[in-house]
Amino acid sequence: MKTVQFAAKFEYLDEIREFVGMIARDGGFGDKDVYNIQLATDEAASNIIEHAYENITDGLLELSCGVKDDKITIVLVDHGESFDPSEIPLPDLKADLSKRKIGGLGIFLMRKLMDEVHYEVKSNQSNVLTMTKRKR
Amino acid sequence: MDITVQEFKHCDMITVKGRVDSATAPQLAQALESANDGGKYKLVVNMSELEYMSSAGFRALLAAQRNCKRYNRGEVVLASVPERIREALELAGFTELFKTFDDPLQAVGHF
């Protein structure tokens, strides 16, 4: 697993996507999977920056990524407010335009695009989000 | 991300190039809002050179669609949506909220 730390700011999303994209490509994932892995990681990081670090300006986001056998694992660690994606209700995708809620869409995409999404609050005040995906 | 606006007789075409994420989506939202502020509610979003769009971009499109469709005064349609972006829009259930066209001029002709 390779690990990098980013300041928890939206301006680093490009680099965050590049980092996981490169590892996924080198690990043999195809274009479609690479795009979806980048999208899921972006949604996860965006949620951390927007919610976990909502009132914190100097937050750090630690991103680890590696491919073993046919599986990519992405781990995002933050030290902000705990924010369990599994507690967020799924958006109603059948709702018409006026009723369509936009919240929860990023989490919904993460769950759809990855095989597993797991969230854990550690005792040392860190939140650990782990996502995995196997090659098709 | 780069945005250009082109005025047609019956609609405006907003061409979005590059990548739309949480960092750049506010610029897209702003471009759509200024079209509305200028009384333009019939909008084509040309995605032919768009490389990437996260749910932050979807949010901006949804807000614009709501505003444009109010009072039946117009709508946002999407043109030349790249395959990966279309798949993500489909997953999010967004393809039923927007008419899509393969070709930008075909989308302009819709209005």
What does this 3D model show about the protein?
The complex is a heterodimer of chains A (136) and B (111). Chain A is of the alpha+beta class and 136 residues long. Chain A has one domain: Histidine kinase-like ATPase, C-terminal domain (Heat Shock Protein 90). Chain A contains three helices and five strands. Chain A has a five-stranded antiparallel beta sheet with strand order 1-2-3-5-4. In chain A, helix 2 runs antiparallel to helix 3. Chain A starts with a strand and ends with a strand. With 111 residues, chain B is α/β, with parallel strands linked by helices. Chain B has four helices and six strands, in the order E-E-H-E-E-H-E-H-E-H. In chain B, strands 1, 2, 3, 4, 5 and 6 form a six-stranded mixed beta sheet that branches. In chain B, helix 1 links the parallel strand 2 and strand 3. The model of chain B has no long low-confidence stretch (mean pLDDT 97).
Could you give the order of the helices and strands of chain B? EEHEEHEHEH
CATH C-level class of chain A is Alpha Beta
Please tally the helical runs of chain A, counting DSSP H or I stretches of 4 or more residues. Answer: 3
Major sheet of chain B: size, sense and barrel closure?
Answer: 6 strands, mixed
Notable features of this structure?
heterodimer; A: 136 residues; alpha+beta; Heat Shock Protein 90; five-stranded antiparallel sheet; 33% helix; 29% strand; B: 111 residues; alpha/beta; Transcription Regulator spoIIAA; six-stranded mixed sheet; 4 helices; 6 strands
